Amino acid sequence: MDIDKDSLPTQQDHPSPISFGLDLRSGVPTYLQLVQQVEAALRLGHLQVGDRLPKVKDVVSSIAINPNTVLKAYRELEIRGITSGRPGVGTFIVVAPPTISTKAFDQLRSELVTGWLRDARGVGLEDDAIVALFHSALSESMYLANSEGSRSESDGDA
Amino acid sequence: MNALTTEKLTKAYSTKVALHDCTLAIPQGSVVALVGPNGAGKTTLLEIATGLVKATSGGATVLDGLEPGSLAALQRVAFVAQDAPLYQAISVGSLVHLAEALNPIFDRDFAIARLKEVEVPWKRRVGKLSGGQQAQVALTLAMARRPELLVLDEPTSGLDPLARQEFLAHLMNQVATSGMSVIFSSHSLAELERVADYLVLIVSGEIQIASPLEEIVAHHRVVVCAPGDLDGRHEIEVIDRQLDVRFGSHLVRTRNMETLRGLDSHATTLEEIVLGYLRRAQGIRVLEEIGRS
């Protein structure tokens, strides 16, 4: 048993390539900030498949947050299929996050430019009004998505 | 398993009711922030949980059924009072020996290692340490007792921002390692949003909110509308509104997001939610005073 344990790589041998930071003013939930930082690090190539995420204990010691928040972030990453936890060893990157294809991106963009944005200008909206409208629509769509989520949860209680 | 349970807890002093009908059921493993204005009853609640004060009526138990202050509870609950009171005249080393001699369970190696880590000089007199160092010593002694419930009364109030951050980091590290429950009172809303996962908001001796943080944030929204727009909507409680405006922000509490359909609403931060409740409580107090005079 002891030999097995000794042969496992330890955090000291291979420190995780990333450390987390927090933006308390952003309004983005803390666990989601951690998730987004892992995804961003993957997109930028700072993290690769096989890399280990920092231990929960090390994260809470460095940025003073609740350990359950870190666990929640790691669970979310696992649900998204990005990481895999190996009990007693650590949490490892298994796949890069799905990125939107260039083709889909270009198509959405051109639909926005030649469609909705042209219509908006057509009725006389200025840039500020367009941004305000977009933000309000974005928050409504997030809110609808959230309320659908919370409703299905509360169904379980009833 | 509950870390702290109270049932219609009331504490009346000769001139003032400090707590009134407080009912709580806080799950074990929680990091609980206790917030409220000065004089709201926070310290009284913590003192009842640790057995230093007896309730006038109603009851409190810790760690599933133990009576606060009983021998069984004393061994499993640790308390650091406000301003971390320590014996000032003896050295840090002597204080550690004293704590070891006075407690059936005391992890001496942990205490020594941790004090070294936070660079508290072993031979220095406690009274000569900075406020931040004294807070670290008090926390170390409390944690070395390996409590299952750690109760802290405004642990960070005397600390500068860096010392505060280090203190909280160590506390969270211990929570991650041992799984202990923590109840702490605080005036720093930014701090509690970061480290706590459960919030108890108490105003004038009465509990306003007692829920997991996530639930609190999920059940409150800011609605920007005319006051009349909220009339006739179900399952909605307006917590805070700007008075005498035709159009403004309303902090509302609802479990049913559907009821807000068609209104411009957005999620808000824990800080804004707590401020809304505090403003409401202050408004009620002002109205009562006007009523009396």
Give the CATH architecture of the largest domain in chain B: 3-Layer(aba) Sandwich
CATH first level of the largest domain in chain B: Alpha Beta
First-to-last CA distance of chain B: 48 Å
Cα gyration radius of chain A (Å): 21 Å
Helix content of chain B: 25-40%
Sheet of most strands of chain A = 2 strands, antiparallel
Strand order of the largest sheet of chain B: 5-6-7-3-8-9
**Number of β-strand runs of chain A:** 2
Largest Cβ-defined interface: A-B, 26 and 26 residues
The end-to-end distance of chain A, rounded to whole angstroms, is 48 Å
| Overall pLDDT score of chain A | 80
Shape of chain A: elongated
Q: How many DSSP E strands of chain B? A: 13
Which word captures the global form of chain B? elongated
CATH fold annotation of the largest domain in chain A: Arc Repressor Mutant, subunit A
- The low-pLDDT segments of chain A are 1-12, 153-158
- As laid out across the biggest beta sheet of chain A, the strand order is 1-2
Please give the oligomerization state of what you see: heterodimer
| CATH superfamily (homologous) name of the largest domain in chain B | P-loop containing nucleotide triphosphate hydrolases
> What percent strand of chain A?
5-15%
Counting DSSP H or I runs of 4 or more residues, the number of helices of chain B is 9
